[in-house]
Amino acid sequence: MEIVDVKPGDPRLATELLPVLRELRPHLTEELFGQVYEEGHAQGLRFTAAYTDEGVCAGVAGWRVIVNTGTLRQLYVDDLVTSAAVRSGGVGRALLAHLEERARALGCHELELDSGTHRTDAHRFYLRERMSIAAFHFRKPLD
User: Fold this and answer.
1) What domains, with CATH codes, occur in the chain?
2) pLDDT score of 107
3) CA quadruple 63, 64, 68, 73: dihedral positive or negative?
4) Are strands 57-68 and 46-51 parallel, antiparallel or unpaired?
């Protein structure tokens, strides 16, 4: 498996990462994904992809470093998805381990992510990877 960072404008974003990312974020179109990454990149958003030995994109992580008063410096994972075709094959574990190494190299104190309450399989995975449930996440849609 090869894990690589993919920069804005890279054609692999639309052709290889987006199909995997849409398994988690089905609302994303190529245009919307491009817009989000362009604006988000200025805010620190980065995408990292895991490729099989055959060169197929098998997993995607969107992440950024955040500094705040609660956790100080953290690597926050916006998206972590493994293609259903290869799920439970170690791709998610490899991506998460890569992000943890990246977080340490960037001087982060924590690695954090949110996971929808309905994603119980993902929760089991995170707990197996020694992550803890540390907070409730509240949301209020704005008109």
Assistant:
1) 2-128 (3.40.630.30)
2) 97
3) positive
4) antiparallel
Number of alpha carbons in the 13 Å side-chain half-sphere of residue 139? 6
Residue type, 134: A
In this prediction, residue 130 carries a pLDDT of: 96
Neighbours of 47 (CB within 10 A): 24
Distance CA 26, CA 67 (A): 29
Say what the pLDDT of residue 88 is: 87
In three-state secondary structure terms, 33 is helix
CA atoms lying within 13 Å on the CB side of residue 24: 23
Q: Give the DSSP letter of residue 17.
A: I
Model pTM greater than 0.70? yes
Mean pLDDT, contiguous 10-residue spans, the chain (143 residues): 96 97 97 96 97 96 97 96 92 97 97 93 94 93 94
| Largest pairwise CA distance in the chain | 46
Phi, psi torsion values for 5, nearest 5 degrees: -85, 140
Q: How far is CA 7 from CA 40, 67, 71, 77, 131, in A?
A: 12, 22, 27, 17, 28
